[in-house]
Specification:
By secondary structure, the protein is an alpha+beta fold. The chain is built from one helix and four strands. The protein is globular and about 45 Å long.
Amino acid sequence: MPAIILVALAISIPLSAQTITTFDAPDAGTGPLQGTYATNIAPSGPIIGFSRDANDVRHGFVRSQDGSFIIYDVPGAGTAAGQGTRAYGINPSGTIT
């Protein structure tokens, strides 16, 4: 019975209300396991995550609602392949973990 209710609710949502936005962080690599990884979105709209560049180094980012990026590296996070900065969480006040 719960599955039927979920299907009915899903059918009632207009498809035109769905929007998918794709983006790539600046300087994100294009090789295997490289690229942009969005990990969370704040209630106010900014998206956080990390990118892996062509050297396999990770860099944290914040993508604002207007599409602009802030790329950052935590001091001491490392700059060799497999090292760098990753962001996974953001709270309502904008603190990133």
